[in-house]
Design goal:
This protein is mainly α and 313 residues long. Strands 1-2 form a two-stranded antiparallel ribbon. The C terminus is likely disordered.
């Protein structure tokens, strides 16, 4: 009878990483030095920072310029970006060409320049924008020939509306590339299966393609939203005076306490962007269910394994 010797107990010891503790100690010292400088340096003037953060014009600029501007611009950007992405992926060469020219133009123009042109240049070139049949007045010789309506551009060019439109048009060019990458990440077999079930292209895009593409679209879209919060500081070029950073600069110029006033604006930006980052993480987990190795994916795999083991009773 053959006997096999069983190995004895393994006395395993964890691998030691002494340099990790050294790095941790260095980081702790640096953080302590920073906190000490913030607390002990009277030039930070934290009391005045809190006063500026609760200053009524600053709060109005935060809501009306930064938050409303971000929401409005991202709505235009996301909707426009999805439409442009679908046009770029279309079999129609005209639609592809129009979408390409749009993205080329608005990605090449700096947002500050675009806002200046929309706020000042457009009002000079087109103080009133007539909507109707092209060249009707020149051909028929009548002032109101085939006219549908008129838009007074000079009244709109100094408000938050033109700022939101400008930022939204610029953002649509970037969102188009993000949406296009997300759509192309979906297996082509999904669209073929949708067609086999009798779905139209639009219904397949809404029900099948875009929900799966959101896993790829959400992270860069979150980054674009956070970037848009900061880009609203460019609205002063329109000009829009009821905006967070513009109001912070006004306080700094009037009180000559520049650093504390700027710190107040920075803290508000940190608060808003932190909230957006938390929301982005929840969206990523929601649309990432069943993919990767995260908690959601692990839960999905566990459910599938239990269903397989349980079988039919």
């Amino acid at each position: 009878m053959m006997t096999t010797d069983r190995p004895g107990e393994i006395d395993a010891r964890p691998v030691r990483h002494p340099w990790r503790w050294v790095a941790l100690a260095i980081i702790a010292v640096l953080v302590a030095m920073m906190i000490s400088s913030f607390v002990t340096n009277p030039r930070w003037d934290w009391g005045f920072v809190g006063t500026v953060m609760n200053y009524k014009p600053v709060l109005q600029g935060l809501v009306q310029g930064t938050i409303v501007g971000t929401i409005g611009a991202m709505i235009i950007g996301i909707l426009g970006g999805v439409i442009l992405a679908i046009m770029r992926l279309s079999e129609n060469p005209v639609l592809r060409g129009v979408a390409f020219i749009y993205t080329w133009f608005f990605r090449a123009i700096p947002r500050l320049v675009l806002l200046v042109m929309l706020g000042a240049g457009v009002a000079v070139l087109y103080p009133k924008l007539d909507i109707g049949f092209p060249f009707a007045q020149q051909i028929l010789g009548m002032d109101n020939a085939l006219m549908i309506g008129t838009i007074n551009v000079s009244k709109l060019s100094n408000g938050i509306i033109v700022g939101i439109i400008g930022l939204g048009l610029s953002e649509a060019a970037y969102m188009a590339e993000i949406a296009r990458a997300g759509i192309q990440s979906v297996d082509p077999g999904q669209a073929e299966a949708a067609k086999a079930l009798g779905m139209s292209n639009g219904k397949a895009m809404r029900r099948i393609i875009l929900p799966q593409a959101m896993r790829v679209i959400v992270p860069p879209t979150g980054n674009e939203t956070i970037a848009m919060v900061k880009d609203t500081s460019l609205l002063s070029a329109v000009p829009v005076t009821m905006e967070l950073w513009f109001q912070v600069e006004q306080v700094a110029n009037q009180t000559y306490r520049i650093v504390p006033a700027f710190v107040a604006g920075v803290i508000w930006y940190l608060i808003i962007c932190s909230i957006l980052m938390v929301g982005q993480s929840y969206l990523e987990r929601y649309f990432g269910r069943g993919f990767g190795t995260g908690p959601a994916a692990g839960a999905t795999k566990s459910r599938l394994r239990l269903n397989f083991i349980g079988g039919d009773h």
